[in-house]
Design a protein that fits this description.
Layout: E1 2-6, H1 10-23, E2 28-33, H2 36-46, E3 50-54, H3 62-72, E4 77-82, H4 87-90, E5 100-103, H5 108-153, H6 161-166, E6 179-186, H7 201-216, E7 222-227, E8 234-240, H8 247-265, E9 269-273, H9 283-293, H10 308-318
Parallel strand pairs: 1-2, 1-3, 3-4, 4-5
Antiparallel strand pairs: 6-8, 6-9, 7-8
Helix pairs in contact: 2-3, 7-8
Keywords: Cytoplasm, DNA-binding, Phosphoprotein
Organism: Paenibacillus taihuensis
GO molecular function, one term: DNA binding
């Protein structure tokens, strides 16, 4: 973590720098300032985690500096250093969320304890912020999965009118004239499994989705991959502008996903393809065909060509089927 020292007496700043350097707490003194005005100018450049500031200084005192810093910037935490005669004044810093006070002359052990308390507080804040960020990302992904599931789950055969107005895929698909839905169905797996521990379900699906993305996403393919919000073992991949793709290579990559998931993750997985459709409001029809084709037992018995019925249909639609 980074520390900034603010005091109008150079020898006191130097003494604090030396003390902190000898503590081996993982702290780095990134800068100093001789008064509150200089400190407020340096704060956004140095971005310190902890600021040690004197209370009585020319130009702008410690409380003025802290008040302006709190109004302008976020992220810094303040420890006030004051003489005994200034202690009552220094206690006003509580309104600015000052966490600690140290009396002059600064005792090394007291300084160490104060810094350690502040480091612990910052670490806890970062932990909570990280957890909140992960939760926000997770909630955003759940919302995305729910909306995309809603789009592909709508009953096939309904075109135009209210439904067409409600069903919108991302802007990247707006000008596309052909689509196909692909469904990967992951077979049940009990954790722990290989390197995945109990509770690693999300990580497991991330690994599978990463494999699918790496194999299927190319400069000529525009796809949308998501986990089904209801069928928890189902991954859906919607490809746009399918009529301009090499269907033979696509079919090979679809089956290679199965090979890689089985070889590297030791997981059973099947794939199904729907028919090519010419508008967004018919993607649901392609999805339902792909979902039926991906069911275990409804596919060819040769593992590496699971879902071949749907893939053959895709090839025959393009006229690219090769024997």
């Amino acid at each position: 973590m980074k520390v900034m020292i603010v005091d109008d007496e150079p020898y006191l700043r130097e003494g604090l720098r030396i003390k902190i350097g000898k503590m081996n707490l993982g702290l780095t003194v990134v800068g100093e300032a001789g008064d509150g005005q200089e400190a407020i100018e340096k704060l956004p450049v140095l971005s310190p985690d902890i600021v040690l500031t004197d209370i009585r200084m020319p130009v702008a005192d410690g409380l003025t500096f802290i008040r302006e810093a709190k109004e302008r910037y976020e992220g810094s935490h303040f420890i006030i250093i004051s003489g005994y005669e200034d202690f009552d004044y220094a206690k006003k810093g509580i309104q600015y969320d000052v966490q600690d006070y140290i009396l002059k002359p600064v005792d090394t052990d007291e300084l160490r304890e104060s810094l350690m308390r502040m480091m612990s507080k910052i670490a806890e804040e970062r932990k909570r912020a990280s957890a909140a960020s992960r939760l926000a990302i997770r909630n955003e992904e759940i919302s995305r999965q729910t909306e995309l599931t809603r789009i592909v789950q709508q009953l096939p055969g309904i075109e135009g009118g209210e439904r067409e107005g409600r069903t919108e895929l991302p802007d990247a698909f707006a000008r596309s004239k052909s689509f196909v839905a692909i469904v990967y169905e992951l077979q049940p797996v009990k954790l722990p499994h290989r390197s995945f521990e109990k509770g690693d379900e999300e990580l497991l699906f991330f690994a599978v989705m990463n494999m699918i993305s790496e194999l299927l996403e190319t400069p000529e393919r525009r796809g949308l991959l998501f986990r089904h919000a209801i069928e928890e073992r189902r991954l859906v991949y919607v490809l746009a502008d399918i009529r301009y793709m090499n269907a033979v290579l696509l079919a090979q990559d679809l089956t290679k996903v199965i090979d890689d998931v089985r070889n590297y993750l030791s997981l059973g997985i099947t794939v199904g393809c729907g028919r090519i459709v010419s508008s967004q409001c018919r993607i649901n029809s392609s999805y339902y065909q792909a979902a039926r084709a991906s069911r275990p037992g409804a596919l060819w018995s040769v593992p590496r060509i699971c879902g071949a019925a749907g893939i053959d249909r895709l090839l025959s639609q393009r006229g690219d089927r090769r024997r």
